[in-house]
């Protein structure tokens, strides 16, 4: 099989020395990749600089990215070059990226300058609409500083929504056995399964691995693998999850 795996956590630049990221280490993705490789499959592994990854070997192709935009570009490039039998999208992708950054003084000056142009701010509705327009205009301010000065009491960071990478995978590779991931925090098993099923249906996945951050530590990683029929299988550690995913994907692929 020809397998694509994304793993690790993307980061979004604030300036040339600062970024926003998450705590994903890529350890589960690494184990999944190693399990596929040990079974003789070819793995294209897309990951981030800080994440762990499988050791170099002939059947492994490694692609390194940092931002969500770079991830999107790398995947579209790969989809033009080859067809994948399965995609394991375990990467923790940033929901938002940096639009611009402003000091408190600069923000207030820009907001005041845009609002003063409007002479008809006599009611709440009109004022609210003007504020939305102003925020949109300020958010498009070009960030020129390579390193944002630290001499301000408050730094305002404007974030904008990133595209959902998982949403494009089925469209780009309709034949692939697609595995998505969903991480929640402090929910019941029933809620975890309910949300996991929603992700599966929404993104046309074959499987979704639903897990709760409160049940992940150095010794355990409880995960629930949900399939299209709503059946669930539970694993208690990262190696168990990796083997469960590999076995399920191989079985699904053989049945097609």
UniProtKB/TrEMBL annotation:
Keywords: Ligase. InterPro entries: CoaB-like_sf, CoaB_strep, DNA/pantothenate-metab_flavo_C. It comes from the Bacteria. Pfam families: DFP (PF04127). Residues 2-103, 144-250 form the DNA/pantothenate metabolism flavoprotein C-terminal domain. One of its GO terms (biological process) is coenzyme A biosynthetic process. One of its GO terms (molecular function) is ligase activity. This is Phosphopantothenate--cysteine ligase.
